[in-house]
Amino acid sequence: MSMKRTNVYADPEDLAIIKEAAARRGISEAEIIRQGIHLAAMANRVWDEPLFSRTFAGSGRTPTKEDVRDTVADAVQRESRSGTAA
Length: 86
Fold this sequence. Notes:
With 86 residues, the chain is mainly α. The chain is 55% helix and 0% strand. It is built from 3 helices and no strands. Helix 1 packs across helix 2 (29-43). The radius of gyration is 24 Å and the shape is elongated. The protein starts with 11 loop residues before the first helix and ends with a helix. The mean pLDDT is 88.
């Protein structure tokens, strides 16, 4: 992967934490900073597609504990009748 050099200003306390983490993990300080930049970039990315593009039929309400229990019990019964295991 090709990389581009850039300069940033950082708090001395943050740099000290990065230095300690790099020594503890046995990697370079630059690698920790690159990982941090990647995480920040991904956290702020705007995606073209929605995360959940499919919709599901339902009542439009949050299921109760009993609803969930009954649904799971029904699925287990169906699987046991068909001979498949989860």
